[in-house]
Amino acid sequence: MFSAIARVFKTPDLRRKIWFTIGIITIYRIGAFIPAPGVDYNAVQACLDMGGTDGGLYNFVNMFSGGAMLQVSLFALGIMPYITAAIIVQLLRVVIPRFETLQREGPQGQSKLTQYTRYITIALAALQATTLVSMARTGALLQCEIPIIPNDNLGTILLMVLVMTSGVAVIMWLGEQITERGVGNGMSILIFVSIAAGFPGSMAAIWTTQGWQTFTIVCLIGLTIIAAVVFVEQSQRRVPVQYAKKQVGRRTVGGTSTYIPIKVNMAGVIPVIFSSSVLMLPQVLMQFNEPAPGEEPGQISQWIQQYFGTGAHPVYMATFFFLTIGFTYFYVTITFNPNEVAENMRKYGGFIPGIRAGRPTENYLAYVISRITFPGSLYLGFIALIPLIAFVLIGADQDFPFGGTSILIMVGVGLTTVKQINAQMEQRNYEGLLR
């Protein structure tokens, strides 16, 4: 392994890309701890030390910002507006034919979709920044009575919203720089860094509160989960495809054999994000409908608090599990079109051995997708429940790092980045990072 890493740094072009990527990551992490203008940094730290946000509503979003949101920093919104915008643009392909046309136009159409994603990201960033600043003013963000914005006049509020929105634009630019001049996959690497930044603190909290025995068990469980996730993420069903021979002039072309790779987890981490977002809505409604001092909450609020106020309740777990399964089928349905794949195969003279071209091929692909998606959805559902189960067993809900969205993203991005570095090494040395 060390010899492989040494070969990476012996390649000048690749070494320059890696150091450039590390530099961009450093800038990103520094921005996560610089407080936004008008924020009292000492007051923020005092509120965090009081532990009022442990297991709270915003820890999920805070994870994607690398802890920047609860620090109320320049990069407080993190990469989440971009993730949301990218998902919206992808879903709009089903609703707006223009988006589907751009998707088929190749690089030029992709460039236009990327531009739309940027516009939606800035709009979402402005909306989320306004909400975040409003919650910081009232103390709902950190659940603390200490004022973290001492001078909350209109000018200060507008400046904070502007700076946080600009911070999202800077993060997008940093991610694009990694894609163009670094090792590639820029936005995903920034997400990876944001999640990985919380691992040391989470492991330290488990050591401090649960002891070294629980810490050792968590490490062993984590390694097992990572191995299982790597195995499933790399698993795929290969549907064989044969292309007929064609006579073009004096040359015979075609006659090749290939396959359609259908991953077990085609949906990635998107269904888990959807499910988590849906289950956040009841808690958001509760915060906007808090009873006045001295009044008791209504029956609906009590019911929401009982069943959805914490992830430890079986009803919450079951809802989370089945929502994840449902969103997995939904997302795979809109991202993989058997009709389009079958039509492209027919157009270029391809066919699946034993299956007629056209409608039979479409039906066969739909059958394979439905069979593959079922175990993939169960896998995502169980992975999403790991942090909730950890909360019940060892009381380490937000401190348990090996599970749910975090581990799926980190393993996925890690595998993709290693493959990209390996491909670049093979282009130069005929020997990759992975032997």
UniProtKB/TrEMBL annotation:
Keywords: Cell membrane, Membrane, Protein transport, Translocation, Transmembrane, Transmembrane helix, Transport. The keyword DNA damage does not apply. It comes from the Bacteria. One of its GO terms (cellular component) is plasma membrane. One of its GO terms (biological process) is protein transport by the Sec complex. Its main location: membrane. It is a multi-pass membrane protein. Gene3D superfamilies: SecY subunit domain. It is found in: Cell membrane; Membrane. It holds the Pfam family SecY. PROSITE patterns: SECY_2 (PS00756). The keyword Protein transport applies. The chain crosses the membrane at residues 18-36, 72-96, 116-136, 156-175, 187-206, 212-232, 253-274, 315-336, 377-394, 400-418. The central subunit of the protein translocation channel SecYEG. Consists of two halves formed by TMs 1-5 and 6-10. These two domains form a lateral gate at the front which open onto the bilayer between TMs 2 and 7, and are clamped together by SecE at the back. The channel is closed by both a pore ring composed of hydrophobic SecY resides and a short helix (helix 2A) on the extracellular side of the membrane which forms a plug. The plug probably moves laterally to allow the channel to open. The ring and the pore may move independently. Component of the Sec protein translocase complex. Heterotrimer consisting of SecY, SecE and SecG subunits. The heterotrimers can form oligomers, although 1 heterotrimer is thought to be able to translocate proteins. Interacts with the ribosome. Interacts with SecDF, and other proteins may be involved. Interacts with SecA. Belongs to the SecY/SEC61-alpha family. This is Protein translocase subunit SecY. It comes from Nesterenkonia cremea.
